[in-house]
Protein 1
Amino acid sequence: MTNVLFVCLGNICRSPMAEAMFKKMIAEQHLEQQIFVKSVATSSEEFGNSPHPGAQAEMDKHALNYAGHTSRPITKDDFKWADLIIGMDSQNIHQLKRIAPSQEDLNKIKLCYDILPDKQGVEIADPWYDHRFDRTYRQLSETLPHWLDFIKN
Ligand code: 4NP
């Protein structure tokens, strides 16, 4: 069993899209009993809010299910629950490392693009200002299948 936690700043754009995409991939491969997925924020800025309308439109385009998702900040229990904590950009990683309750938790924290050896340090760009939700989807499509392979192996 592997618990995967996707994290971004607001939990209304990138991490809910990552959660929905990963869940779809897991369902397609019949791994629902083995891999569990959640997403959370590093901030309380968007607490209680649904995904951004632009993120919803992009997810609708790809038949992704985000029903019932609302933003919430990460908790100590999330750190304990997760086996893998995947942040979208370096600011997320910095924040996560700052608040990680234990050394063991620190080791769970990964940057999404770091699964690709030739793209170390690349960020899932924040779509907040330019509304490029298509880029978010493309970048997640490039990285998430490799995380699933990593977990399976
Ligand atoms: P996300 O996008 O971290 O991908 O959910 C953002 C959401 C909210 C803000 C920034 C980015 N904000 O500044 O409130």
Note: The radius of gyration is 14 Å.
Protein 2
Amino acid sequence: MPPASTAEILPTHTPALFAAAVARAAELLRAGEVVALPTETVYGLAANALDERAVARIYAVKGRPAHNPIIVHVASLELARRCARAWPGRAEVLARAFWPGPLTLVLPRAAGIPDLVTAGGDTVGIRWPSHPFIQAVIQACGFPLAAPSANPANQLSPTSAAHVAKWLGEKIPLIVDGGHANVGIESTVVDLAVSPPRLLRPGMISALAINAALAGTGAELSKAGAGTGANAGANAGGTLRSPGQLEQHYSPRARLVVWSWVDEAELARRVRELCVPPARVTVVAHSQVPLGGGYGRVSVIPHDAEAFARALYGELHECDEAGAELIVVEAPPTTPEWQGIADRLRRAAAPRR
Ligand code: TXA
Ligand code: MG
């Protein structure tokens, strides 16, 4: 069991509570503290992006490897431009199409962005999140916020304040409760510092949508396939590894498998082959829902990419809390809007190192 949470947890569900929480978060951030804030994708562990010592605390709290750069969060195009040394037309087009929202743009870094934020690299990831709370905090502070997902390295990302409290509650002074994350998986990351641009991490803004927005600019996401020359390490669909993608990520503690089954008998047979008692098995299904089988838990999550993404991490957190030994997730469709979900499930299913 994780140690008990000692963090202050502030609600935001009335205008007065919202304003008080903004003031408290801004006060701590100005003082160089690290606080957990809601965003529409997952909760973030935020610090002043321009304060190297504050950013160092993010790495310490998360146990994050120093080679993994952190996304800088802004609340205006003007602040975004100040974080980048160059702002190509493609950045303007994508920012105007998808910001505020779950898209991170990787651009040449401005001189004021500390080395620690970029892990020593020459680029910086920038995102303007749509959650009103983090926007209000950035506006109150006047500086951008460096924020990775608010989980210990290699654990599942949090989509609620309770998820944050469970693992980091004794390490940070404040967790702001902004409700359940509406998108539910981490932002799409696009590298605009290279030509053609590259998809580094798929998310709920699909490659298809990005290419549609880029159409007028003459640019298109590179179609690099796995293991080809300079793009070695790319996944199917042209996703390249960004530093954080090398880590095993987004994993629940139980073993997770992603299967399709034609009927309950097939599912039962495959579970038997793994020698896990059905009572220790959780099934997360969206279309072939088992009605029998004696499974410890059967969750039905919607057969709709957006709703599925919103529910996914919450389900996996609950499976862990219920002490599941095996989580069987019904394979998602292979259409473009499911690409981000398929990526997270693939990572969650990767064997632990
Ligand atoms: O939705 C999100 O992006 C959430 C919320 C809090 O905004 N943040 C998030 O941060 O997922 P994190 O640190 O868990 O994942 C950021 C990913 C990592 O894979 C990291 O390597 C990559 O973005 N990244 C950040 N800056 C980069 C850069 N300059 N170049 C390449 N990849 C970068
Ligand atoms: Mg993360």
Note: The chain has a mean pLDDT of 92.
